[in-house]
Amino acid sequence: MSWIYLVFAGLLEVVWAYSMKQSDGFTRLIPSFITIVAMIASFGLLALAMRTLPLGTAYTIWTGIGAVGAFILGIAFLGEQVSVTRIVAAVLIVAGLVLMKLSSGH
Predict the structure, then answer these.
(1) Global pTM?
(2) For the chain, which residues make up each domain, given as ranges?
(3) Of 16 and 56, which is predicted with more confidence?
């Protein structure tokens, strides 16, 4: 169950990162509200996951899901630059996440 909490926490990190961008520095009410709610939920699920998962594993995977997810959303919806270097970086992050999971023993 901890891994499910962790994946959803990571996905919510993507939600709050995207909605924070849309909040225009917390000047727009709805995106600001979504950001805060998603942050609280993300941190809460991360805390639940950390009850049984090691800190290094949980935190690394949580931030990795957020980083790669924000990268993909930025390209898909915000017109951010796509380059070979950025794609290689994202692939390396995913490879690191897979290795972290395989080495966790959970």
Answers:
(1) 0.88
(2) 2-104
(3) 16
